[in-house]
Amino acid sequence: MDTPSQKKGLGPLAWIGIGCGSIVVLGIIVVIAVTVLYGGKFKQFAEDAQKNPARATATTMVTVSGGKLEMAAEDDANKRYTVREKQTGTLTTIYWNETKKAPEIIQGDFSAIPADGGAPSAPAPAPK
């Protein structure tokens, strides 16, 4: 009688486990590398966005546009920024709406901002 020969090497489940484990390890390495390389930039952006969300919105639009947009006008005192599309010249203004406590985006330059500019209206007089 012949004895069955011993299997050599790893089985398919072992190879699948090794492959999945390798993907997890590579993912962890990528996360660590991105944190080390860009962690300071993310932190700085978060701080800037807390101080002036309208400016953060405008600069993000310009940055992610791939060179299609440029900052046309900046008014830090009133928290309003105009971005121009380079190809068509279309203007978009981002301003801080005090009523909504959020940035607003409108087509046009600073003159397109609504008359109240999102500012809170004066409080009503108290009844007598």
Core attributes:
single chain, 128 residues, 4 strands
Describe the structure.
The protein has 128 residues and is of the alpha+beta class. It folds into 2 domains: 15-51; 53-112, no CATH class. Helices cover 41% and strands 20% of the residues. The protein contains 2 helices and 4 strands. Strands 1-2-3-4 form a 4-stranded antiparallel β-sheet, with helices on one face. A hairpin with a 4-residue loop joins strand 3 and strand 4 (102-107). Residues 119-128 have low confidence and may be disordered.
What topology emerges from the helices and strands here?
Layout: H1 12-51, H2 53-64, E1 69-75, E2 80-85, E3 91-97, E4 102-107
Antiparallel strand pairs: 1-2, 2-3, 3-4
Can you summarize this structure?
With 128 residues, the chain is of the alpha+beta class. Helices cover 41% and strands 20% of the residues.
Terminus-to-terminus distance = 113 Å
Mean pLDDT: 83
Described by strand count, sense and barrel closure, the largest sheet is: 4 strands, antiparallel
User: Which segments are poorly predicted (pLDDT under 50) over 5 or more consecutive residues?
Assistant: 119-128
Determine Rg (CA atoms, Å): 28 Å
Strand order of the biggest β-sheet: 1-2-3-4
Instruction: Give the helices and strands as they follow along the chain.
Output: HHEEEE
Supply the helix-strand structural class. alpha+beta
Shape field: elongated
Total beta strands: 4
Strand residue percentage: 15-25%
The domain tally reads: 2
Number of helices: 2
Helix content: 40-55%
